[in-house]
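Weekly puzzle thread! Below is a chain. First person to post its structure in token form gets bragging rights.
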Amino acid sequence: MKRILFIEKKQRNLVLGLFGLIFIIVAVLSWTITQKGHEVIDTEVQNYLTETSQQTSYKVNQRVNHNIDQLTILAQHLNHIDKNQYQNLIFDTVDNSAFEWIGFINKDGVLDVDGLGKKDMSKVDVIKNAFMVKVVSVINLLRYIVM
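Winning reply:
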């Protein structure tokens, strides 16, 4: 009888040990699968964000380039038309573009926008730099002619 109880205890301990081992294996596998799932999700989110960023950047660059092209075409046309036709060409450009207004800055740095009035822009760095580039270009051209 003692022997039967000893065998039953041994079998019971063996079964409990096997269940414990199976539980540990299942827990380790679950943890590993969960970690791999997080890695896959993080990779997919990063790929999605990268793709979205690239698409947005492309669209913005495309629109900016289109606007610069429109301004370049306008500037080329303004060089070849009579000053009385300036406003009509500008109105047409504004109506058919993303611009709300287009103005001109004279040599004194005064911005003139039809319907909005004039504003002194001579102290704005980008305007000062643009005038400096023009002055330097003229000086370099004169040096080239003199030499």
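Puzzle host: Confirmed. Bonus trivia for everyone else. The mean pLDDT is 80.
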